[in-house]
Amino acid sequence: MIVPLRLWSSLFFSEAVRALARHKLRTGLTALGVMVGVSAVIWVVALGSAATERAEAEFQKLGNNLIWIEAGSRNINGVRNGTYGTTTLIPEDAEAIRREMPLITLVSENTDGTLQAVYRNHNWFTHYRGVSPEYLDIKLWQVAEGSFFTHDQVRHIESVAVIGETVRRELFGATDPTGQLIRIQGSLFKVIGVLTAKGSSGWGQDQDDIIMMPWTTALKKIGGQGITWLDDIVCSAVSREAVNPAIDAVTLLIRQRHHIRPGGEDDFNIRRPDEVIKAQIRQSRTLELLLISVASISLLVGGIGIMNVMMASVAQRTPEIGLRVAVGATPGAVQLQFLGEAVMLSLFGGIMGVLLSIVGDFVIEKMLGWPLSTSPQAALLAVTFAMAVGVFFGYYPARRAARLDPIAALRHE
């Protein structure tokens, strides 16, 4: 027999709420399990999204279709043998890439190391990088104050420097560094610009603790006498799809220039840092799915609690069920009433779980330092899943109530 819509809504909502309100403590304790399960699912989704967004932000910081050619090879285990002492990667290789590689749009020579910079009575041990002007576009970096050096300054080996935010803070404090002179290894360098702050990299390195200068200046005045080779060549492909073909073409070009025979080991290696970040993103998403599965178990445990409570409710209210059936209630109506109680119980726990997750966002954000926010989609999904759990675990007790023999139910004590 089909239950009329008005009776359906009355049984499923009004009667269910009244029945649950008669046992507030039991209802609250049962809903607590669902509440914890829902909040756990939402937190896991929020943490997974925050981790993915963090990795994707690092991916955006890496560079514009970045291809990084390093001096030195890697052994069979993938460990880099090292740049220093490897003299085969030279500026002419960078020029050849510029000239012969149509898939490469930007090229920058690179030599780097550590040094001590001095300004008046302040000194700071930092990292330096000798590059060409294209480096900013390749690495998607900008200058916050002043300007970057030009190709003319590279050709004339001028002693100019562009500093990162950390170096500016440690050497100059509140003083405007633009136009000031700093001493680096016995030479005076003019600060012509300050880089926009980038923060820490995905590996925890402070990207703002840097001094950039023309690569020719770094070779002649910082690297030492007789240094004519590069540590790296940094390139940008014309598009993301062109990165892998460009890597193959650059590999072939440099092998030919370095006279490496077929089967011979490269004296350089080409790496793609974006692949590391992509792997981190994939791992974070896989971990998110795993944690969601684990958190969902607590929802299932809450569902088992709902079934136990509903079974006890059916046993306790057996005479009431018999009386309802005796005065004309159909088995479908009885089943709908008890199923409505299970769903309302899980819905109440789900709503409380969403509220708990919103409060918990602030606590977790303070602990981890990650900006967290309860996703409306995650909240809706968690509450919907909680209601589905209520239907699943409430069906059997409701079905059992509907199939009670009214005569036996009325005699039940």
Low-confidence stretches: 75-84
**What is the overall pLDDT average?**
80
**How many extended strands?**
10
**What does the largest sheet look like?**
6 strands, mixed, barrel
Oligomer: single chain
Strand arrangement, largest sheet? Answer: 2-3-8-5-7-6
Description of the structure:
This protein is of the alpha+beta class. It has 13 helices and ten strands. Strands 2-3-8-5-7-6 form a six-stranded mixed barrel. A hairpin with a 2-residue loop joins strand 6 and strand 7. Helix 2 runs antiparallel to helix 12 and helix 11 packs antiparallel against helix 12.
Quick structural gist:
This protein is α+β, with helices and mostly antiparallel strands. 56% of the residues lie in helices and 16% in strands.
Give the arrangement of secondary structure elements:
Elements: H1 5-21, H2 24-62, E1 66-71, H3 91-100, E2 104-119, E3 122-131, H4 135-138, E4 143-146, H5 151-155, E5 160-163, H6 165-172, E6 181-184, E7 187-195, E8 210-214, H7 215-223, E9 232-237, H8 243-257, E10 268-271, H9 273-316, H10 318-326, H11 331-368, H12 376-402, H13 406-411
Parallel strand pairs: 3-8, 5-7
Antiparallel strand pairs: 1-9, 1-10, 2-3, 2-6, 2-9, 4-7, 5-8, 6-7
Helix pairs in contact: 1-11, 2-9, 2-11, 2-12, 9-11, 9-12, 11-12
